[in-house]
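FW: tagging you since you asked about this chain on Friday. Here's the raw sequence from the shared folder, copied in full. Didn't touch anything.
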Amino acid sequence: MNIIRKPVKFLKEVKAELGKVSWSGPQELMDSTIVVIITTIIMTLFIWVVDLLCAGALRRIFH
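HL: got it, structure written out here
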């Protein structure tokens, strides 16, 4: 019977813990999404510029 009690106990504990979670509201979720999108764009542009600079430097070194 232990094989059935353990998963049931686990699921009950998961449900109890999820009840304690502070869920984000719609506005906070939207704000966080915007921050993630802007950060991703900035990092993409930064990596693109660094890649261009490295490619240019390597072209000058090996040509």
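FW: The longest helix spans residues 26-62.
HL: agreed, and The mean pLDDT is 94.
FW: great, closing this out.
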